[in-house]
Fold this protein.
Amino acid sequence: MPTSEIFKALTIAGSDSGGGAGIQADLKTFAALGVYGSSVVTAVTAQNTIEVAAIAEVPEEVVIAQIDTVLEDIGADAIKTGMLSSTPIIQNAADRLEAWGIPHLVVDPVMVSKSGAPLLQPDAVAALKQDLLPFATIVTPNIAEAEVLAGRPVRSLDDAREAARAIHDLGPGIVVIKGGHLEGPVVDLVFDGQAFLPIEGERIETRNTHGTGCTFSAAIAALLARGIAPIEAIRLAKRYIEQALRHAYPVGEGHSPVNHFAPLPEEVAAALEGTRAH
């Protein structure tokens, strides 16, 4: 297949040895949505469905080398970031992404694992806000992450609107505050600096939720890589993650992963068909 007909996405994130989150989830998602995936590993974690037993950061010069090596040869139509761990990694990643001028960047501001382990050093939040978010096409915090980024509690949809405004002021094009951790219906709040768009969804009752945030942001990046407009990419990514949750199955004793290769919802499949070639 000619290179011009290949959609490509890059994930810059941590490795999950259990295969449910991080770069493993991202690469599965890219593949499920018909996008060639490459990866930059920022940290290696020893984890399963129950716990994160150990974390080792990748040296920042190796992170830089991975970014440059992939982009100078393979390139990317969209990039997503996940676990970035520390201030130096965030700053160096932001520097290289600015230098390469990537068309779309999706930032998943990963801070804590599903099992509660910290994945972002506290002193790195400032770098995330100042150095990376200004380059983001879309940022996808959950409620807890939105509270940290906005510096205010989020207990309701009105709180989420105020937090979205505050986060948007940091520079990203679109803010998506995921509503799964609030009581009541699941509503993801999308804010583009002008208007709020609530995207309602179904609350899927399952224990198999590991990697939902990684998968959602990776799906957005994959759809952007295929040329789908940002708001529609967000909406379709939500449909994709809902289906992945519906078809999830246990692989361990704790929070098992979503099913990245569940049958695609009809509207997602139709969107992919409509972007079959560049």
About this structure: Residues 230-246 form the longest helix (17 residues). The mean pLDDT is 93. The radius of gyration is 17 Å.
